[in-house]
Each structure stands twice: as structure tokens, then as C-alpha cells.
Amino acid sequence: MLSKNILVDSSVIGTVKFYAYVFNDESGRVGFGLFPNDGPEPIVYLLNVQGSRIKIFFNERIILLICQQSRFSTNERRNFFREFLDFATSMEKKAARLVFRDNKMTYMADTREMIKYKRLYIHYKSPVSSKDDMKVVSN
Predict the structure, then answer these.
(1) Buried b or exposed e, range 44-75, using 16+ CB within 10 angstroms
(2) What share of the chain in percent tops pLDDT 90?
(3) 51-87 pLDDT per residue, tens
(4) Superkingdom, according to UniProt (predicted)?
(5) Under 8 Å CB-to-CB from 9, ≥6 apart: which residues?
């Protein structure tokens, strides 16, 4: 279980409020993540995995839940994704300054996964959804 230690900032994008926290993971490692609707898991996070190397991780389960629950048009999704990326990039810079000084960072905008998840979110076509899905977004 993650321990959220310091709230750095928050931003509402569409119907989701993202909270940026400095946290400790189960192993006590320091991380920095964006938590949708102040939930227990980050959608994306940075973690010191080895020495001074900071790695970025994406929570595909949460990304898919947000995609499935979004009822916005493609253009609206495109704009929301741009807002999210601006917020995430700003938070990455804060994390680099506050938490991961003097460490080698992998930045979100530079990853292939970001392009993959951008396309997934913007162009997502919902199959028949289950009533048992966890509610992440309120419409």
C-alpha cells in the first residue's frame, strides 16, 4: 500500500481531479505520482528504482477505466489529454526539483507509452461494459 506524504498540487481535467503527491511505496522507496480523484493508486508515477535512475510507470488498469467511462467527443478528449499532459509535465518538473534532484529522469512526454495511451484515450471505442467496473469518473 502506498503512503501519500505530501500533496504538491491538483487540477481538474474534464470530470477527473488529479492530485500530485510525493509518496512512499510498499518498499519505502520515494515516488511522485498523479492520483485520479484522490484514489489509492496513481495513474502515472515516477519511482527511484535503481541508484539515481528514476523510472516512469503507467497504471493501465486506471487508464482503461477512464477511457471506458469517458463520454466526451474525440475533440474534447484531445483537449483534455493536452491539459493532462501540460499538468503532468509541470508536475514532473516539480518532482525533479523537489524529490529527484541530481537523478537521471525519464520524462513522460518522451516515452512510447505516452503516445500509446494518448491514442487509446482519444480514440477509445467502448465495448459493452461491466457493471462491476470500478467508478473512477463521475459524469
Answers:
(1) bbbbbeeeeebebbbbeebbbbbbebbebeee
(2) 62
(3) 788 889 999 999 999 999 999 999 999 999 999 999 9
(4) Bacteria
(5) 19, 20, 90, 91, 94
**Spatial separation of the C-alpha atoms in residues 77 and 102, rounded to whole Å:** 35
Calculated CA dihedral for residues 134, 69, 139, 88, nearest 10 degrees: 90
What is the rounded CA–CA span in Å between residue 80 and residue 49? Answer: 30
Contact at 8 Å (CB) between 44 and 60?
no
pLDDT digit string (tens) for 4-23? 999 999 999 999 999 999 99
Give all strands of the β-sheet with 30-36 in edge-to-edge order. 3-13, 16-24, 30-36, 44-50, 53-58, 104-105
Instruction: Judge if pTM exceeds 0.90.
Output: no
CA distances from 127 to 18, 67, 68, 69 (A): 26, 11, 8, 11
Type of residue numbered 103:
N
Q: For residues 65 and 37, what is the distance between their CA atoms, to the nearest angstrom?
A: 13
